[in-house]
């Protein structure tokens, strides 16, 4: 007959195993999400660099930038406006919607520096 005391070591072993499996999965996701930032960082703060990378990776409007960066709406809006003033981004209006994109002169400048 199996007693309760015989299940305790198995229960502890399963708990330790579950802990290490979950720890491994969490750490693997963090490593996978690391990205290399290839942005000319002259006169840009950290959040501007993040927004610029989001646009380079396909963000077309404020909502896309918010989703890709996790920034609040007001912060993302201010950073987009700042990047437009600095000449890093441009705005295009189509059918009443505004789209942001990388300034072509900046693309050429970055390609010439490589």
From TrEMBL:
Does the keyword Transmembrane feature in the UniProt annotation? yes
- Give the Gene3D superfamilies listed for this entry: Winged helix-like DNA-binding domain superfamily/Winged helix DNA-binding domain (1.10.10.10)
Under InterPro entries, the record lists:
Tscrpt_reg_TrmB_N, WH-like_DNA-bd_sf, WH_DNA-bd_sf
Question: What are the entry keywords?
Answer: Membrane, Transmembrane, Transmembrane helix
- In this record, what's one Pfam family? TrmB
Please list every transmembrane segment annotated in the UniProt record, as residue ranges. 6-26
- Span of domain Transcription regulator TrmB N-terminal: 54-103
Its signal peptide is: none
Entry keyword annotation includes Transmembrane helix: yes
Which protein are we looking at?
Answer: Transcription regulator TrmB N-terminal domain-containing protein
What is the source species?
A: Sulfurisphaera javensis
